[in-house]
Amino acid sequence: MTLLAVDELRVSVRRRGTELTVLDGVSFAVGAGQCLGIVGESGCGKSLTLRATMGLLPPGATRTGGDIRVGRSGLAMVFQDSHASLDPTMRVGTFLADVVRRRRGGTRAAARRQAAELLAAVGVPDPDLRLRAYPHELSGGTRQRVSIALALATDPRVLLCDEPTTALDVTLQAEILRLLDTARAERGLGVVLVSHDVAVIRQVADVVAVMYAGQIVEAGPAADVLDRPQHPYTRALIGAVPSLDGPVGPFRPIPGAPPDPAVYTPACRFLPRCGHGDAACRGPVPGVHALDLRHRSSCVQHSTHHKERT
Amino acid sequence: MRIKITACLLLAMTLAAGGCGTAEPPADDPSGRGGSLTILRAADIDGWDPDKAIQLATFQTLPQVMEGLVRPSLDGASIQPGLAEKWTLDARAKTITFTLRKGLTFSDGTPLTSKDAAFSVGLWRKGLSMGTLYGAITGTATPDDRTLVIKMKKASTFTLAWLGNGSSIVVPKDFGGKSRADFFTKPVGAGPFVVSSYQPGQRLVLERNSRYHDPARPYLDRLVYDVVADPNQQLLRYQSRQADAIEAVPLDLAAQIPEEERVLVHPSATIHGIFVNATKAPGDDIHFRRAVSLAIDRARYAQAVFGGLAAPATGGLPPRVQGSVGCGCTYETGIDKAKAELAKSSYRPGTKVELVVDATTPFSTRAGETAAAQLRAIGIDVDLQKLEVQVLVDRQAKGAYHLSLGEVGSVSPTVGDIFGLIVATGGLYSGLPMKTIEDAFDRLEVARTDEERGAAVRVAETWIHDNLPYIPTAFPDRLFAVSPKVKGLKVTPFLSYPADLLQAG
Amino acid sequence: MTAVTFFRARFRARRGGGRVRWVAVTLLALVILAAIFAPVLSPDDPARQTLDQLRPPSADHPLGTDALGRDVLSRMLYALRTDLLLMVFAAGLPMLAGTVIGALAGYHGGSLDAAVRWVADIFQALPVYVLLIAFVFVLGPGTPSLLVAFGTLGWIVYARLIRTEVRRVRERDYVSASYLLGLSHTTVLVRHVLPNSLRQSLVYLTTDMGLALQGIAVLSFFGLGVEAGTPELGAMVAEAQVLLRSHWWLAAFPGLMIIVIGSSVAALADRFNEDGEAG
Amino acid sequence: MSAGRLRFVAARLVQVLPVLTALLLIVVLLQQLMPGDPARVMAGPRATVEQVAQVRRDLGLDQPIFLQFWAYLTNLAEGDLGRSNRTGIPISAIVGDRAGATLWLMAGGLIVSTALAAPAALLMALRPRSVAARICARSLTILVNCPPFWIGLMLASVLALRTGWLPVGGFGETFGERLRSMVLPSLTIGLAAMPLLARSAAGSLRQVLAADHVTTARSLGITGWPLVRRHLLRNAMPPAVTLLSVQAAALLFGAVVVEQTFGLPGLGAELVSAAGQRDFPVVQALTLIFGCGIILINLLADLSVALLDPRTTWR
């Protein structure tokens, strides 16, 4: 069952008086109990995609096209930096109880009890004590758990997670990811998880979408995309991550930098950094939708290779 | 430098009224007693200690509370009784003998005797700032409670006139047992009014002195002076009738006062002119000074700067006071003559000549611009500089200037007043030797007749005309705004008005 | 909101903002041109005094004459020259000084930062008026003293602004990333930190330019200000202040010009503001 | 209060000391800095060089500067601000007499400017693209460029003189009179101070609005007034308090002009006239009082900001 479907999302940002289209034709869907991982370098538009989906674009950015279909249930979001994303002037419990009451009604005391339960549910030890704390008094891991508890307090069907573990160390990272996994399994949540870290994605995602320069360039089941990447960017991305499991290869950063939105074209945007391109890459490239479980990429070279091989 | 007489130097042109009341009975029905008036002034009194008097307001107000032995008459031509009902000047014995009125008391009820008057004379003489003005006095004697004898080293008629000035006020002997500072924060005198309340810089409330020697006066029960520096605010208060009169309205605002509410003093006993530093080039050259004098078109200047509310200067001493006989010469104007004089002088075209003016009023800046324009027209390269008024005074005193613009107003009814100031300031900061003026003043001081006075003054006028220690340009008017409620305001050329004769209609 | 209404709203908003800015730019351009061509445009010599004093606007004197019978229009045109320069320098110098000081203090931190903060604290704890008096008195009224006074008092705001911004930006990832790449301090400061910080300063600068004009007017109100005789808008307003109710045109036109210049410059700043929001 | 906060307060108090010292030094140096010899002003235009010297001795101006500084400090330590050179009145009395008008004016100005600026700031921050916000922003731009003495004069001559409802100036004696007489000056100073206040407040609101935690709150369905009240205002409060403190300092400057325009007997007007008369004991005392006032306001602002922010511990 599809809980969230985003279709041909377009977002522009105004800079020095001109409109720049920074997200173009981004489509994806997520079903109950499913985890969609969106991976890409910084600045490729992953976070903006989540914010646009949530309807929380920063000032200056506007959605100029596309369709977002959400089931009856709501969306909730977990942010990257739990330090900045929690109101510093409010005790954790006050905030959490506020959200609970807003969603479920009831008395203050009841809301507070439920808040404590929620904290316990996300694995915060000694929840009653923590409720009285200010965000800055909590450890990074606990704060992120609080963020998740806040998100869960709205009883969402889909959880959008924006780099939820980036600010944490590896042990905590694993714990938070496990927590998300549990929440998904127990509540049948759909999860969209954005990360620049292929390892994180590999750990939790069922379906993977690779973004580059405001577009999805490759999508499909996690195993297919991550083990048999079709797009040279995906290959580079995976290659750029030192893998603990695989053979220890040399660390190869992708040469060059992603293009500025001002010079986005219908042609392959990875071409300048690719190294395998030819004339075909300069024409329009096909868009990739992460709507189903088929594995595909926008690389025209791959399709020709593929044809030659078959 | 010996100082004899004073005048008020009004560089700031912060004009307030000065002078003293008079004992002349009012012509109209004296039954109009009672009521209260509020008068606006731009600057507050300098406090109650007469030795600190600088502002005209101080000379005006002090005798209202602490009356002196004598006061000047309304036309300024003579001396009227004050606390003393009569006096005789013995030229041979060099004494003045005063007889005090009968039954005089201070406002607190203490009797006022010749001992108090003698103490006061001592106080004036010892004054740090004013002391030398009483330099002719050598001592006092008090043969009885109502008789005071002032002994002098010469038969100075000027000293008698000066005793009518606002700084010659009678206080209780030994300040009634208080310290000088304490006494002058809560002064007690025998004037027509008592201080009801005083907030320095804001408001002075005077009330009728019920023990005043003249039971008919003052007519007012209450007289309030509000200090308002901002001219617009002054006018707004007046127009909204929060105040009944303005002492010396800035001439800029004259047009906004209805014709029937103006009391114009035309002209006042004030000289407006260009002061010259004659101790250094180019002012040290008489040809240069003459060129400057010739360059100023006085009629045009009076129109341009004062909007016609001034008379072109016809002499070097103020008009309309005792002894003002004029110069008997003329201050000529002519561009060609001026250029010729300039050519004769050591001044070389292109050399900057500083003209410093007071920065604090648009009026003085404008006067500076007019003067500068007229001087530039004959080829003097004027560098007009606005200076904050105290800086200006400082530079004048130190001789650190070329030309400056200033005004000198008389506070007393005799032209000799200005003589003293001219001598004391070296010819209004020219640095020229003042021997001639000093000698002329010595003659004026003991002059008994108008002829003797006229002869002495003419010597000074002629010397000023020939040597130009300063260049007189105009005799400005003063304008009082007076609402129909106010009756009995009569202003002398030296800007005093008898407050005890004011009535609220 | 459907896409269509969304677009309309946005279009309107953009056109609205653009129009105001266009008007501002045009006005400012006109003012600058008027200042440049003042000698050509002036109907009269701005310094020529006549006995036609305080005349209301007429064909001969489109904006009337002042208390010395000078043509107000001509004086105003020449005043633009004085004021535009004064505005740029009175606001620009403090910004320059403040930016440099603030950037150094913010970037290096430590004792330099503490010293700057100390000095700034002291300056802010003093009644500005007394300082202005002291400055302008010590140096004598006139343009140089004005500039020194504004410069000495004005840098603090910029220094604080830049310092805070530099410290904030400095702690952001990309600066540390640039560090790792081995860029020098200056490069980091100039390439990454300053551009980000300067935008805010520029917004402040545009406000400051208007305020500088006003500051000069207020100083003129107290008799300080530019040299006597130099046509200057603030001085014209202050001098005509006593005549405001009888000869309104004397203060009204220069006053209006101050508002026009100040507002136009401020409207230019909106551009930075909006970009700031977008970025 | 936690130990950390106490430490913060103590540290902030210690920071005041050098500022205070510098202020004192400047106050004493004022006399040296300002041209115009106070002795000559006091002695009057007809005084001789010897008399001026005598006055200078009487005023203690012939002493070396460090002795003057020391004398000033010791007197100050005894709570003695000295006496006015001109009137001989103790300065404490002058201040007591004059402080009322200035305090009234500042309170009135703060109330008016805050009352006007707060809605304007909210409007401009929350609905930046609305027509009302745009009109508001433009009007502020125009208002900020109006010389304050203009605003005052217009209010007085149009509002007060025409209608006669309010006094055109002065301070009045009774509480009621004072209240009435403060309306126009407060409005003047409030109108003059309000544009910058509104703009900066809108700016800091916008900053809070763009902060991550507000996004979080919105993502959790908190919108509208609850968002403004619970999350925006609370977080915008510290910068607003800082702004207000800066504003209060600016009001002191504005007060000088407004007191002049409305003929109010305040400290600012007294400072102007004392400076003009080179009455240095008064100038020094008032400078010191203004300076300490501003230091105190800044201190209180910093402390309350610190107390408002639960994160404050050390620095």
TrEMBL record, chain A:
Gene Ontology terms describing biological process: peptide transport
Record-annotated ABC transporter domain positions: 4-238
Source organism per UniProt: Spongiactinospora gelatinilytica
Family classification: Belongs to the ABC transporter superfamily.
Cellular location(s): Cell membrane
Stated name of the protein: ABC transporter ATP-binding protein
A GO cellular component entry from the record: plasma membrane
Parts of the chain that traverse the membrane: none
Keywords for this protein: ATP-binding, Cell membrane, Membrane, Nucleotide-binding, Transport
Major subcellular site: membrane
Automatic annotation (TrEMBL), chain B:
Signal peptide (residue range): 1-23
CDD domains tied to this protein: PBP2_NikA_DppA_OppA_like
Residues annotated as domain Solute-binding protein family: 79-418
Organism domain of life: Bacteria
Protein name: Solute-binding protein family 5 domain-containing protein
Organism: Spongiactinospora gelatinilytica
Entry keywords, A to Z: Signal, Transport
Lineage: Bacteria, Bacillati, Actinomycetota, Actinomycetes, Streptosporangiales
Classification via Gene3D superfamilies: Dipeptide-binding Protein, Domain 3, Periplasmic binding protein-like II
Pfam family of the protein (one): SBP_bac_5
Automatic annotation (TrEMBL), chain C:
UniProt GO cellular component terms: plasma membrane
Principal place of residence: membrane
Membrane topology per record: Multi-pass membrane protein
Database matches in Pfam families: BPD_transp_1
TM regions (residue ranges): 20-41, 84-106, 118-139, 145-162, 202-226, 246-269
Signal sequence segment: none
Subcellular location: Cell membrane
Keywords annotated in UniProt: Cell membrane, Membrane, Transmembrane, Transmembrane helix, Transport
A Gene Ontology BP annotation from the UniProt entry: transmembrane transport
UniProt domain ABC transmembrane type-1: residue ranges: 80-269
Entry similarity comment: Belongs to the binding-protein-dependent transport system permease family.
The name this protein goes by in its record: ABC transporter permease
Organism, as annotated: Spongiactinospora gelatinilytica
Automatic annotation (TrEMBL), chain D:
Chief localization: membrane
Residue stretches making up the ABC transmembrane type-1 domain: 99-301
Subcellular location: Cell membrane
Gene Ontology terms describing biological process: transmembrane transport
Gene3D superfamilies cross-referenced by the UniProt entry: MetI-like
Membrane-topology descriptor: Multi-pass membrane protein
GO cellular component: plasma membrane
Classification via SUPFAM superfamilies: MetI-like
Keywords, alphabetical: Cell membrane, Membrane, Transmembrane, Transmembrane helix, Transport
Pfam families in the record: BPD_transp_1, BPD_transp_1_N
Keyword Transmembrane helix annotated: yes
Coiled-coil segments on the chain, per record: none
InterPro entries cross-referenced by the UniProt entry: BPD_transp_1_N, MetI-like, MetI-like_sf
TM stretches of this protein: 12-34, 103-126, 138-161, 181-198, 240-262, 282-308
Highest taxon of the lineage: Bacteria
Family: Belongs to the binding-protein-dependent transport system permease family.
Name recorded for this polypeptide: ABC transmembrane type-1 domain-containing protein
